[in-house]
Structure formats: structure tokens, C-alpha cells
């Protein structure tokens, strides 16, 4: 079982940092698909969902430094602020620099990928179209999350 908070203005939960992920995606179906896939492999995880880039920034700004997520997953195309906007604002911030940041998107445009990577994304994934691709994506997310060694 997991606890889901939608669009909270700040970090108001008490879970272990290494056990929660911030997911920003404006598509509820995509949120559910990724949450279910993650929780099927890692039921101990908590997934905090927000609907756009501005909500992601507001959420992070409200988190005490000890309660930051262990992974940030951003959809590329979101209203208000997209993934590049979010990455450009948090990429070099001392509080967020060590948190792995990944983008997942339906866009496969090289320019979108380059912009995300240039602004601090650790990886860029195309949204999966099969269960096998989704399972692989979840494995890769946890490899990235586990290998967070930036300072």
C-alpha cells in the first residue's frame, strides 16, 4: 500500500528519503501506470505525484533538506513549466544536485533529449509501449536511484 498526495504545496510527509519518488506528469493514466509498475517491484516506495512543473518546484521548495525525494521523474511536456524549465531551476541547486533526475516522455525528438540532458537530467526515457519496456524502465530507474553519487 502507498500514500499518494496530489498537488500539495510543500513536503508534509514523513517517510524515509530513500523510499520516495517525486513524479511530475500531467497525464493521470501515465502516473498510474508508472506507480503500479514501481510498486509491483518495490511496494515499500511512496510516490508523491504532482501535475506540472510548477507544482514540482513548489513541492521541492517546501521540503526540509532531510525529506527530499531519492529520485525525481519528470514528464517532458507538462503545462505551466515543462521538464526543461524544472531542470534548469533545480539542476545546480545545492539541495537538489545529488538527487537523480530523469525525464520520461512520448517525445523522441533529439532536441528535447539534448535540452533535458544539458539542463541536468541523468537520463531521458521514451514512455514505454509494452509491459516489457515498462519493466525495463522501472529496473533502470532503480539503478539510477541507487547509483546517485553526485555532490
UniProtKB/TrEMBL annotation:
<feature type="modified residue" description="4-aspartylphosphate">
    <location>
        <position position="75"/>
    </location>
</feature>
<feature type="domain" description="Response regulatory">
    <location>
        <begin position="20"/>
        <end position="142"/>
    </location>
</feature>
<keyword id="KW-0597">Phosphoprotein</keyword>
<dbReference type="GO" id="GO:0000160">
    <property type="term" value="P:phosphorelay signal transduction system"/>
</dbReference>
<dbReference type="InterPro" id="IPR011006">
    <property type="entry name" value="CheY-like_superfamily"/>
</dbReference>
<dbReference type="InterPro" id="IPR052893">
    <property type="entry name" value="TCS_response_regulator"/>
</dbReference>
<protein>
    <recommendedName>
        <fullName>Response regulatory domain-containing protein</fullName>
    </recommendedName>
</protein>
<dbReference type="InterPro" id="IPR001789">
    <property type="entry name" value="Sig_transdc_resp-reg_receiver"/>
</dbReference>
<dbReference type="Pfam" id="PF00072">
    <property type="entry name" value="Response_reg"/>
</dbReference>
